Amino acid sequence: MKGLTDRQREVLNFISNFTEENSCPPTVRETASHFSISPKAVQDHFTALRKKGYLSEANNRSRALRVLVEDPTNSRRKKLTEIPVLGVVAAGKPLFAEENFQETVFLPDTMIHGVNGRFFALYVRGDSMIDAGILNGDLAVIKQQEVANNGEIIVALIEDSVTLKRFYRENSRIRLQPENKNYNPIYCQDIRILGVLSNIIRTY
Q1: Parallel, antiparallel, or unpaired for β 55-57 and 139-144?
Q2: What DSSP state is assigned to residue 21?
Q3: pLDDT under 50 in the chain at which residues?
Q4: If 122 and its partner were Cys, which of 89, 134, 150, 190 is the partner (CB 3.0–4.6 Å)?
């Protein structure tokens, strides 16, 4: 994630804390009033936070803000989980698998399932999972585990490649099913399951 200016950090923390206290995000005018700045200045901060991947806004509604990544220095927010971003996972053809730590994201425990587990994140490349709502450039948050149930979306290691697909164990083989009719399933006898999809983070 790109770094924040001091004012951007203050705005992000205000949105986060306001949402926690009021069960809804603040409007532009409420934010402007809090900081004694113009609505235009607030919109500029919101735009910068979205571009840096910390904030999402949808449907042009006044209370549609959503914090995607918390500021770990925000003393009023607790129980953040530090998640390493390890590189790229293919949602098309498998990519060469090399654990390459790139950065860290901090997510509130309420955003991830099984807070006692270990998590890592990978950027998605490709379009083979678009019908499951997973797009090129998304950040996939993965709960690290070695087993999965049929139908779950997993990160699998096949020889020296990793891929993100829906998992099915059949009678004599494993089927890794894409969610795009333009792609064929991957059939194999054995794979190493690295984890199961927990969350998708998208920057608009």
Answers
A1: unpaired
A2: H
A3: 59, 97
A4: 89
